[in-house]
Structure formats: C-alpha cells, structure tokens
C-alpha cells in the first residue's frame, strides 16, 4: 500500500513538470511581444526556409542549429569507427569515430540551409 501511495504522489508531482506551454490563440489578448510589435509575417524561400523582414529593413531567417546532424553523424561515426578498429575491445575506435562523425554531421547540417 505504501508503494502505491508513494507512486501516486510521485506521478502527481511529475505531471506538471511535463506539461508543454504553447502560444495563446490568435483571438486571445496579448500582453507581451505580440502586443507591442504585432505579429511577425513569415515568408518562405524556394528551399523552404522561413524568413521575416525586420524593422530595420534587414531580412532575418532561422537556420538549423545542427543538432540532428550531430546525433546522426555521431551514431554513424561510432559504427564506422567500431568496424575499422578490429583489435582489442574497440572502444577507442568507437569513441574517435563518434567524435569525428558528430563534427562532420554538425557541419553538414548547418551548411545545407542558406537564407537569401
């Protein structure tokens, strides 16, 4: 009985921490950035990157930060490094391959997006 109560208390305290906060709907009153500056009108380039025109006349865009490239490159590099290093426990090849793959994957992911 004690374990059930303890589990219920832990679940009840962890539930609010997992809730995601979203933007208010368009019809709701705005009290922050949107109230002061209005909505930002996003446009898309030919290659699908969103951009917007700033108040200073410059064009701004959101580029990918390379996180997916780091993860995919790290996994692929670890597999290749493990396959190349065939002596001993192969930990060195796996670690070096993961590091090199993460660096290469990050650069590939960042370089694929251009804002024009």
From TrEMBL:
Kindly list the places in or outside the cell where this protein is found, as annotated in its UniProt entry. Cell outer membrane
Q: Which InterPro entries does the UniProt entry name for this protein?
A: Gly_zipper_2TM_dom
Cite the Glycine zipper 2TM domain residue spans from the record. Answer: 69-108
Question: According to its record, how does it sit in the membrane?
Answer: Lipid-anchor
| Subcellular location, principal | membrane
N-terminal signal peptide: 1-22
Question: What UniProt keywords are attached to this protein's entry?
Answer: Lipoprotein, Signal
Q: Which domain of life is it from?
A: Bacteria
Recorded family membership: Belongs to the rickettsiale 17 kDa surface antigen family.
Kindly provide the name given to this protein in its UniProt entry: 17 kDa surface antigen
* Species whose genome carries this gene: Novosphingobium aquiterrae
Q: Highest lineage ranks of the organism?
A: Bacteria, Pseudomonadati, Pseudomonadota, Alphaproteobacteria, Sphingomonadales
């Amino acid at each position: 009985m004690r374990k059930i109560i303890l589990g219920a208390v832990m679940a009840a305290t962890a539930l609010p921490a997992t809730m995601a906060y979203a933007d208010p709907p368009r019809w709701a009153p705005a009290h922050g950035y949107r109230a002061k500056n209005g909505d930002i009108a996003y446009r898309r380039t030919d290659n699908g990157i969103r951009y917007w025109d700033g108040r200073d006349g410059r064009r701004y865009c959101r580029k990918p930060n390379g996180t997916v490239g780091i993860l995919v490159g790290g996994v692929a590099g670890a597999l290749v490094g493990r396959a190349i290093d065939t002596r001993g426990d192969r930990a060195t090849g796996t670690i070096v391959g993961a590091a090199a793959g993460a660096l290469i994957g990050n650069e590939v992911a960042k370089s694929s997006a251009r804002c024009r």
